[in-house]
Write a structure and sequence with these properties.
alpha+beta; Cytochrome p450; three-stranded antiparallel beta sheet; about 10% strand
Length: about 400
């Protein structure tokens, strides 16, 4: 039976899942959800612990076949998506994850991010300036989406003429991360995987002939004790950086401004004291995280709150619920931009902690700073609409006036 407090396909639930999360936390620490065949984990302590527990993994294929794990292999027609997805850091475990992350970290360094700062600042200023000049518009389409897409493209060295391809590819691929995606979603993801992979294969070949100062050239050059990334590993890394990087930043920006408009006293405090921005970004990530659920496979029997969860099961770590857990956060349901003790899980934890977290924070701070500076009277012009997804949750649009 479906649990009445968890209804991810219900648009009303997706628009505001937080009251339901409170009921789930009151129900228990591990709750079986038959429609997706998963154990729901709603408490912060358990989510945080399981993110770090090596008895769980994003994949099981490093240890078991599908049959040994009691799972049905994906349909052969989905293979292009899985080749792309299964060679990326997000869905790998040690030792491959360790090896690839080490190599990627040699290319995607703190210096790489810092060198992007002037570009990010200038782009944020221009995008916000254009929005202000028009008297407002859709904040998602005009600022939240183009900023991270352009930054990732700039970092990878993708020509401006091709950047319009990226967002549709990313959206179609990310559709597969929702619960129980349908065949139409899978077909779009497969097409996007083939097209994006083909595009990157050509770009990598061009960079091999003529290296530049971009991340793809750095990934080609990265080596450690004679080891290098394969072409497929480079392709999967680039796609992951785009998908994880800009999907999260786009949705965080939209969700955050919607939260601020619903909490005018907090918005007024931020406008009065822009030095709050660093804690504000963390609090807005906590308050309405763009990634509501993160899945893990159980590789060895575990127990959560006295509930045995056997090998072969899947857990759904409810990030949105963990971030509102009153056992960890004082006034957990309230937005407090000055909150300093803020161990939110929006960027993950353990070996899968978000590699692009510094870049995401840089982008968010830049766009917020420019909006606060250039549009001090920014206000909501229409009730926003949510996208169809729940796992990756964000606004379809956010129409504002200046």
């Amino acid at each position: 039976m479906p649990h009445p407090a968890f209804a991810p396909t219900d648009p009303d639930f997706a628009a505001d899942p937080y009251p339901a999360y409170a009921r789930l936390r009151a129900t228990g620490r591990a709750i079986w959800f038959e429609p997706s065949g998963q154990w729901l984990i709603p408490h912060h302590a358990d989510v945080s612990a399981l993110l770090r527990d090596r008895r769980l993994g994003r994949t099981y294929l490093h240890r078991f076949t599908h049959e040994e794990f009691g799972r049905t292999p994906p349909p052969p027609g989905h293979e292009p998506f899985h080749v792309l997805n299964d060679n990326g850091l997000l869905d790998l475990e040690a030792p491959r994850h360790t090896r690839i992350r080490r190599l990627v970290s040699k290319a995607f360094t703190p210096r790489t991010v810092e060198e992007l700062r002037p570009y990010v600042s200038e782009l944020a200023a221009r995008l916000v300036g254009e929005l202000v000049a028009d008297g407002g518009g859709d904040l998602v389409a005009r600022v939240a989406e183009p900023l991270p897409v352009a930054v990732i493209a700039q970092m990878l060295g993708i020509p401006e003429s091709d950047r319009g391809l990226l967002r549709p590819w990313s959206a179609d691929i990310c559709g597969m991360y929702e619960l129980n995606p349908g065949e139409d979603t899978a077909r779009r993801a497969v097409t996007a995987s083939l097209e994006f992979s083909s595009y990157l294969r050509e770009l990598i070949a061009a960079r091999r002939k003529e290296p530049g100062g971009d991340l793809i050239s750095a990934l080609i050059a990265a080596y450690d004790e004679g080891d290098r990334l394969s072409e497929q590993e480079m392709i999967s890394t680039c796609v992951l950086l785009l998908n994880a990087g800009h999907e999260a930043t786009v949705n965080t920006t939209g969700n955050a401004w919607w939260a601020l408009f619903r909490n005018p006293h907090q918005l007024a405090a931020l406008r009065a004291d822009p030095s709050l921005l660093s804690t504000a970004v963390e609090e807005l990530l906590r308050y309405d995280t763009p990634l509501q659920l993160f899945e893990r496979w159980v590789l060895e029997d575990v127990e959560v709150g006295g509930v045995p969860i056997p090998r072969g099961a899947e857990v759904a770590l409810l990030f949105g619920s963990a971030n509102r857990d009153p056992a960890v956060f004082d006034r957990a349901s309230s937005l407090d931009l000055s909150r300093r003790d803020n161990p939110h899980v929006s960027l993950g934890a353990g070996i899968h902690y978000c590699l692009g977290a510094p870049l995401a924070r840089l982008e968010l701070a830049a766009s917020f700073s420019e909006l606060l500076h250039q549009a001090p009277g920014l206000r909501l012009a229409a009730e926003p609409a949510w996208k169809g997804g729940f796992v990756i949750r964000g606004l379809r649009s956010l129409v504002v006036e200046v």
